[in-house]
Amino acid sequence: MKREQKRVTFFGGAFDPPHMGHYLAAAYFLACEPKDELWLIPSYQHPYDKQMAPFGSRVRWCTMMAKILGPRASVSLIEQEIHGVGRTYVVLQALKERFTDTRFRMIVGADAYADRHKWYNAELLEKELDFFAIGRGARTAEGRLAMPEVSSTEIRERLAKGASCNGLLPAKVLEDVLRSRCYG
User: What DSSP line would sit under 1-38, residue for residue?
Assistant: First the structure.
């Protein structure tokens, strides 16, 4: 009897910092897809050379968020292992090499999903990867709910000014972000 393939959906991003939009998208996915595991994959290096909080801090924050999300959520360090720069196709190939018995999907925002034809090896990616597109704000995707419009850039700016970010990040993540002083 053939064993059923493990199903893993990954959610990649800078997570600089991981906020309630990320959390709600992940929780929504887990509620919609009760068999899948969810792996959060923080970017090791930004594909456009943007400065980010230290990788270790972002991994710690993603781990905190995964713990809140429950036992099907975890953090993958695949981008660090391959010294990645956020190319989805390269990450997918590395995952497939390491986890040969696993079927992968990817959570992606509606805006990025609409631009996927511009991605590195887009045609191959379309053949090898299923997407779970989620809307944000006014942008919707495939009849799914849209998540609130939350911006990591706005959060970093607020933190730099000393403004409150209560309700914009999971509480435990916000506590650690403030303690780390990564943003001012």
Answer: -PPPPEEEEEEEE--SS--HHHHHHHHHHHHH-TT-EE
**Residue 76 is part of which domain span?**
6-150
Domain count, the chain: 1
Does residue 14 form part of some domain? yes
Amino acid at 171: A
Distance separating alpha carbons of residues 43 and 55, to the nearest angstrom: 8
Backbone angles phi, psi at 63, to 5 degrees: -65, -40
pLDDT grade, residue 28 (50/70/90)? very high
pTM of the model: 0.93
166 DSSP β-pair partners: 169
Closest among 11, 86, 23 to 50, alpha carbons compared: 86
**Residue 143 banded pLDDT, cuts 50, 70, 90:** confident
